[in-house]
Every structure is written in structure tokens, then in C-alpha cells.
């Protein structure tokens, strides 16, 4: 039986390697393998010599072999009929083929990948979650009070009310899902698309991309947050870029801060890009609020943590000096093909 198996395998290799240029080659293939005196029939004929206990197994192998030869025949037919049409139309088949234009990664993907890889080097793992969220993961667990404006229909796209389903407004929802799993410590970044009901302009769109981060363990401090983000900025924008923190407010962090970097264009003295302040805001951050930890079943007396969130569009616009956010979603090749180089 091993002989038969070997024969079938050899035929299969032959079939795989078979090349047809003209219709006659395809016909020769048909006669050799699929004709009334062809090899497929011949192999099938061996069935009578197969012992009863192997009949089932070999029946299957032979059937597969037949289907394999038939599929190849169909493929050859398609090729040679195309070729003969081309020859009839006077085309020269020896000419080199048309170049297939090579695509390039979208600038948002390039920058997101770069952000992700910087944090991966610090031991952060990527976590992902659904874009359609429930109220709990997007708002309630995150300590967003009932009357918070972000919950308003004007700001958030609701898909369903009672129970509330919505398009997530940030990837903090992924952090909640990760905390609920109860495995500590947590050191994650959450890249993904988020949605807000904003009027489309050069600076806002109804969707954008975020990378949020979360680190929860024992004894995590604001100094850890600062050092982590400082490292990120140096890797992303260069060694001479400075950072500063301004007090801010988010319901899910306490204390909260907004982080600025020194202007990449003027480097400090002030210009149009930094509105003559020398600084541009790049992200929000803070220490995880104890209510948030408690909501997710984490002992806030034992654990502390920090979180941050940034818009990938904003980082990309700063990095490449792009003035209009709409360019990212207009799909204009003249814009997109400028970003082939690694960031
Ligand atoms: N979730 C906030 C936003 O989307 C960003 C943020 C994340 C701020 C984590 C602080 C801490 O605006």
C-alpha cells in the first residue's frame, strides 16, 4: 500500500509543477491525468487491490487526488485561455508585466506602531476591546457621574438606550475590562479607534485613534508616571524635547494632569504652532482614582496605579507638521504616499 501512496504523492508533485503556456498543453494535461486512460483512472483502479481495512482510508486519498488534478486543470484552463486571448489581441507576452504599485502604511498606523513599540520596551502589553461598549465600561466604572457632559447624546454616539450601548469615547473602557479580570500587576497599553460626536473640522472629527496606558501594582507613584512619559517623549520626539505637567481633572484619576512638550517647531521662544507659548499639549494622565480600582474589584488600599491617554492623530500632526486632521481620512494617495519611511 505504501507503494501506491508514494505513486500518488509523486503524481501530485508532478501536477503541482506542471506549467501550461498554450491551450494544447492544458489538453495534454487533461489526457495524461483526467482522460479515460489517464493516471487518475488508473490509480482509482488500484482500489480493488486495497485490503478491506484500508479501503475507507484509500478511498478518501484517491478522491482527494482526483479533486486535486481537477482543480489544477481548471487553473491551467483559465491561464491558457487568457494567454490565447492576449495573443489573438496581438499582445506581446514576452514583455515584462505591469508594475503593481506598492502600498504604504497609513501615517496613523505608523505612528501608532511606533508608540506601541516604545511602551512595549518598557514592559507594557497590548490590550484590545470592543468599539461598541456598554455604559458600565465606558462611563460608570470610570467614576463618571450620572450628569457628566460626556454622557450626553450631543457628545456620544448611542446605539441603544436602556440598556445603553454606545460607540466607546475612549479606550479607558479596555482598561476597565482588563482590571476586572483581577490579574495583577497590570501594565497595558490600549490602542484603538474611538468616537465622539463632534463637528468635523481641521482639528476635530467624529472618530479618532487613541493609545491609553495603565500600570497598576504595589507602590506605583506619580514619579513612575513622569519617568515613563518622559522616556516616551524622548524616544518619540528626540532627546532635546522637554515635558511639563499642568494640573487637570479627569473623573478616573486623582491627581490628574495634562502633559505638554516643548514646541517642536520653535523649541521654546514661541511660534504659530504653539500659539506663542512654547508648549503644546499632548496627553492627559494621572493616578488611578481609588473609586475606579474599587469599582473593578481591586483593593485600593493595597494597590496604586497610573493611567494616561493620548490621541494618535495629535501626535502624528505634531510629528509631521500636518495642519488638517481631515487629511487622514480623505484617502488621497498624494498625501498618503509621503509616509513610507519609518518614523
Ligand atoms: N480617557 C481620557 C480621554 O479620553 C484620557 C486619559 C486617560 C486621561 C487616562 C487620564 C488618564 O480624554
Account of the 3D structure:
By secondary structure, the chain is α+β, with helices and mostly antiparallel strands. The protein has 2 domains: 87 residues; 230 residues, 2-Layer Sandwich (BirA Bifunctional Protein, domain 2), CATH 3.30.930.10. It contains 11 helices and 10 strands. The strands form 2 sheets. The chain has a 7-stranded mixed β-sheet, with helices on both faces. A 3-stranded antiparallel β-sheet has the order 2-4-3. Helix 5 packs across helix 8. The longest helix is centred in the N-terminal third of the chain and has 34 residues. The chain starts with a helix and ends in a 7-residue tail after the last helix. The relative contact order is 0.11. The mean pLDDT is 93. The structure holds phenylalanine (PHE). The site of phenylalanine has 11 residues, from strand 9 and strand 10.
